[in-house]
Amino acid sequence: MQYGQQPIRVGIVGLGTVGGGALRLLKDNASEIARRTGCPIVVSHVGVRRDRPECDTSGIRVSRDVFAVVRDPDVDILVEVMGGTTTAREVVTQALEQGKHVVTANKALLAEHGNEIFALAEAKGRFVAFEAAVAGGVPIIKVLREGLAANRINAVAGIINGTGNFILSEMRQKGRDFYEVLKEAQAMGYAEADPAFDVEGIDAAHKLTILASLAFGIPLQFKKVYAEGITRLTAADVAYAAELGYQIKHLGLARRTELGIELRVHPTLIPAERLISNVHGVKNAVLVLADPVGPTLYYGSGAGAGPTASAVVADLVDVARAMRNQPVGAGRAGVPHLAFQPDALDNTPILNIDQVHTAYYLRLLANDRPGVLADVTGILSRYSISIEAILQKPAHAADHAAGKAPIILLTKVVCEAAMNAAIGEIEALTDILDHVVRIRLETLDA
Q1: Do 26 and 41 meet the contact criterion of CB atoms below 8 Å apart?
Q2: Which of 89, 103, 190, 216 could be disulfide-bonded to 185 (CB atoms 3.0-4.6 Å)?
Q3: Which domain holds residue 338?
């Protein structure tokens, strides 16, 4: 049996920002979508636990029980946009068990349970499409799985959380305090009432987990991602970085090295001339370093009804095309879920953060007296840490009166374990008056 011109029927679980956006887009662009797929894509059933009067569900079956959508034999593709990793996991698993294809925007679900979900999809001969899970309207999943399939990917670096990028952009451009900007982001709807998921790097770590698997052909390993937030950054650090020719971004970085793969999310100094440094506000960008193509950059809106719904519907189009061109029951064919064939994923080790090699920005508050800088540089020298630049700034009035002065150092690349040991010794010096502020630095060159 071929699908031919028969409509492909979609069930949507969750009618929030993304689900409602996808529903509207499927209606508004119905004729254009049908021209691309060769058949109509219609929403026949939605599962929503509370009323969504802003969504036009006329002519569509609406169920309070989301599993009614999963059980509906008239649903060919299930769209999961409810979020979370508990009920959503059951919804996706049961849909696959019942022979339905799945489209999801749920990065947390895939980062934490994707290995088993993709294995089940392979066993059942079904698709799980997830372009909307990373960077919203930026088609980075398709880029890594298809566009760069001829390349060996060496690194992926991304600004993949719009909330954090908005906060850092405001801090740099207006010299504002982190918590002041966070309150504004919450008022504008960019940040949740509990913003930890965004500002502590968890959201970016979920997305980086997915990007790394696609880039390097490794299983999804969220628990091995090092995540550090931006809550301790100050306007002073942002300003000092700018003076030295850098911008601070909350960067997700996956890099292939001789020892293994680095998976880390943290505040990062990036040279101001890099294109990715000039991604501001709530925008996302992903830089891919690959051989032979070299560096390529992908930029756009990472969240919101329009961009994310665009990615969801693009996945529906891909699945619909595959359904039309493949007899039902013939098994899943085409691009592997994680870009590499399932039996070709390898166990390249994921490096602990202590094993990472990078450069550093260090800020120290010290007694303003001769010999302090020599003591600090002597410790760095013992750990073979070379200094790239030194910036000594006039103290603020209160610090100046107390005989205190800030010292800012940029180092060359060194192992994190050595830097940790050096910082421990520096902080033990009598003339060092507070914890050393340490921010990693990446040049992101090819």
Answers
A1: yes
A2: 190
A3: 8-137+305-344
